[in-house]
Amino acid sequence: MSVEQPLWRALTAYRVLTMLYAVALFVAAHDDFARPWVAVGYFSVLAVWTLATLPKVAGAASCTKRFLAVDLAVALTGILLTRAADAAERISDGGPTLPSIWTAGAVLAFAIKGGWRWAAFASLLVGVANVVQRGAFSRDTVHNVLLVCIASIAIGYVVEVARASERTLARALEIEAATRERERLARDIHDSVLQVLAMVQRRGTALGGEAAELGKLAGEQEVALRSLVAGGLAPASRVSEDTARGALVRVVEEPDDLADEAAAPRDLRTLLTPYAGAQVTLSEPGAPVPLAPRAARELAAAVGAALDNVRRHAGPGARAWILVEDEPDAVVVTVRDDGPGIPEGRLAQAEGEGRLGVALSIRGRLRDIGGTAELISVPGQGTEVELRVPRDARGRTAQR
């Protein structure tokens, strides 16, 4: 049930009771009226209008702007008709207007429907009408107008706060429901799909041949699915075997808005998670690692190039480790493998032969975004590539 619904029900009862109260005041003092027939005509219209429009004040959907305008016009008309119906002595002595406190119901409808700003607008019109009806400012008039104005604005503000709280609560309930559904799906996936993929990997490795390749793919998909279930970080991806190069190729489908340099910072973890697999271990912080979109993409591409070198030069059985460090002034990603290492002078020789994998795919990418790439390799002890991107990489990228 809506938080404001009880207010609408209270307003419905208030309009009926105050209409009866205004009629009772007239009946008790009808002999003192200069033109009682004017008051009788107005109260007839007021009674019909109040009873006929009860469904209109049953909720925010039915209480339209047109209804609020006509309802306030009925109240203002009653205030101004008081000079024509009542005696001048009663008006000067502070006698009530024809609608009396029924007018506050019209103002409260504005407050509940539109908040405190609508309430202030309606209260201002009521105050002007009361001053015109009295012909001058008086203490009673100012007191009554201020009372209605403050009460309606306060109620309008409370309604706005209640609506904001209701939206926050609804969002929290949606998140809780989504979390519970995610946990249920994670349990189902763990009990079925992940176990099947693990079994295919074990059986394929044991059988060898083409079954071993199938088991390898199943192991890759198991790791990716576990990452998705655990943190929801891996975007949509697909895996295929590049038979020409003998390497595992993973294509990650990224949103189009990543190409926009003005986009919000990108969590680097979402781009590195697809690289994790049976032979690649990814260690990352538990919190997001934000970087400018282009810097995050180029850094992830450099990591991919480093892993390609591991597969190409360290052999199919080599393992690799990716370590992500989120420092205050920079983001550091280290890629290490347990391969045979790179002989001294081999990188310079490869660059001279036109093989620019490390020079362009790794160092070139980092240089374009204002970062650095350091390669350390000891023959027989593997290779380590340290990629460092400063926090201001976004500004340098835009300048370039």
From TrEMBL:
CC per GO annotation: membrane
Gene3D superfamilies, alphabetized: Histidine kinase-like ATPase, C-terminal domain (3.30.565.10)
Keywords: Kinase, Membrane, Transferase, Transmembrane, Transmembrane helix, Two-component regulatory system
SMART domains, per the entry: HATPase_c
Gene Ontology MF terms: phosphorelay sensor kinase activity; protein dimerization activity
InterPro entries named among the record's database cross-references: DUF5931, HATPase_C_sf, HATPase_dom, Sensor_HK_TwoCompSys, Sig_transdc_His_kin_sub3_dim/P
Entry annotated with the keyword Membrane: yes
Keyword set includes Transmembrane helix: yes
UniProt superkingdom: Bacteria
TM region(s), chain numbering: 12-30, 36-55, 67-85, 105-129, 141-159
A Pfam family: HATPase_c
Residue intervals of the Histidine kinase/HSP90-like ATPase domain: 294-393
UniProt xrefs under PANTHER family: NITRATE/NITRITE SENSOR PROTEIN NARX-RELATED, OXYGEN SENSOR HISTIDINE KINASE NREB
Protein name: Histidine kinase
Organism, as annotated: Streptomyces longispororuber
